[in-house]
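Title: Comparing notes on inverse folding

I've been comparing how different people in this forum approach sequence design from structure. To keep things fair, I'm posting one structure and asking everyone to reply with a full sequence. Here's the target:
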């Protein structure tokens, strides 16, 4: 029967103490939780039911259920008087996180002016991802080092945010589906192209904006002159953009939308088409003049794009991509062919003092030693994490060593992860308890997955 502890101050220390202890234990307790991602959130009382055990070979096993429901907590508390952890779980049909298993990540859709993002590991005010209905930060509040690259060095600390895994799903509408042209000073990103809209890009070859137009740059005597001309083009476009946005802002108010609402695609297009022809033509002309300064690169399904720091970039309409990025939330917006809803200004001038001007060439992917029938390629290798692409022939089996946590998402076909089947765009979180990530292909077709592995920064 679980030992009822009441309210405790440091749940991560309690969890860690039981992890280290060799004896099995079952406990139920509450603790005060303050969401670090919400600036003014009142503390929330959470209730945790945990089990610590040892397998036949002495391997540890940990399981937990966390809830904010006082009614559910009362039911658990009453059952603790006569029932074991397993009996309580069965009786109340609780979805329990077992840290030695591959855990399915639940997604959150984040609407954007250009389409939407699909988050797997996001922890923000805008949305918080979950595992089996439990928010990721609730789990890290009791499990120290759950999202750390060095969990063994954090015995008394709660965890950092995990690598951010999401899908970028732009609309297929030209211009409307184009993302911000932006750069980052800290955030690192890798895109894996999973789909190209055939209507938007009939040949299957799409283009994204990446860096600056090198021919245009060479036409100026120096970078300062190029920058001056580019800023002039941006400011000219921004003027007409502001005129359009002010017109649409009035329409929003009249139609009952707030200025922060993301408009449905059909409404956004209809309103654009109702603008005066002279204004629409002026916007198009000045946008093309501004965008002539930017570079492009071709992309096809399967391409892996490392976005270098300080490189202006913009995924374009109809290009769907899986994205891994470090959990930094900074950016400099150089331009956008729509109103930016998350800030009131562009950062073009300050961004141009930071931006890279030199051409960026794609790097060939390095391969690693792998089991027969498996190809392992390093899709991206950053200071804080590495992303590997694993390709499995039918019947192939391969293992990856996991020194902390890892994220796995399906690309092609079906791959078996531990005992779970990974299909395209389905993602799993593997905790530090899983030292060896076992992957295999039981089907008669090739399969592919991506796996992200954090790296110690010290």
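Reply #1:
Here's my take.
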């Amino acid at each position: 029967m679980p030992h009822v502890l009441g309210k405790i101050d440091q749940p991560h220390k309690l969890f860690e103490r039981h992890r280290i202890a060799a004896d099995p234990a079952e406990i139920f307790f509450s603790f005060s939780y303050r969401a670090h991602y919400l600036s003014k959130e009142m503390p929330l009382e959470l209730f945790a039911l945990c089990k610590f055990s040892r397998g036949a070979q002495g391997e540890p096993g940990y399981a937990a259920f966390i809830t904010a429901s006082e009614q559910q907590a009362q039911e658990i508390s009453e059952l603790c008087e006569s029932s074991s952890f397993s009996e309580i779980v069965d009786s109340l049909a609780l979805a329990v996180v077992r840290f030695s298993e591959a855990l399915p990540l639940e997604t959150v859709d984040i609407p954007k002016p250009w389409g939407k993002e699909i988050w797997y590991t996001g922890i923000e005010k805008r949305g918080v991802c979950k595992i089996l209905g439990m928010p990721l930060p609730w789990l890290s509040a009791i499990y120290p080092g759950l999202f750390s690259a060095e969990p063994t060095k954090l015995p008394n600390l709660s965890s950092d945010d995990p690598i951010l895994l999401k899908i970028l799903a732009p609309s297929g509408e030209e211009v409307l589906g184009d993302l911000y042209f932006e750069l980052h000073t800290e955030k690192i990103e890798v895109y894996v192209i999973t789909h190209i809209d055939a209507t938007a890009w009939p040949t299957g070859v799409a283009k994204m904006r990446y860096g600056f137009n090198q021919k245009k740059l060479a036409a100026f005597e120096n970078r300062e002159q190029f920058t001056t001309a580019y800023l002039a083009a941006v400011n000219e476009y921004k003027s007409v953009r502001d005129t359009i946005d002010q017109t649409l802002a009035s329409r929003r108010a009249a139609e009952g939308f707030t200025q922060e609402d993301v408009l449905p695609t059909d409404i956004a297009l209809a309103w654009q088409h109702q603008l005066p022809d002279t204004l629409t033509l002026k916007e198009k002309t000045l946008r093309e003049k501004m965008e002539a300064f930017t570079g492009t690169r071709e992309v096809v399904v399967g391409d892996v794009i490392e976005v270098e720091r300080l490189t202006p970039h913009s995924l374009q309409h109809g290009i769907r991509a899986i994205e891994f990025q470090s959990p930094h939330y900074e950016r400099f917006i150089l331009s956008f062919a729509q109103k930016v809803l998350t800030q009131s200004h562009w950062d073009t001038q300050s961004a141009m003092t930071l931006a890279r001007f030199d051409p960026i060439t794609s790097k060939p992917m390095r391969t690693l030693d792998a089991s027969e029938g498996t190809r392992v390629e390093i899709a991206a290798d950053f200071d804080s994490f590495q992303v590997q692409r694993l390709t499995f022939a039918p019947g192939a089996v391969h293992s990856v060593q996991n020194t902390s946590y890892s994220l796995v998402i399906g690309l092609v076909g079906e791959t078996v992860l531990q005992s779970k089947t990974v299909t395209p765009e389905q993602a799993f979180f593997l905790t530090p308890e899983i030292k060896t990530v076992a992957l295999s292909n039981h089907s008669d077709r090739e399969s592919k997955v991506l796996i992200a592995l954090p790296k110690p920064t010290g």
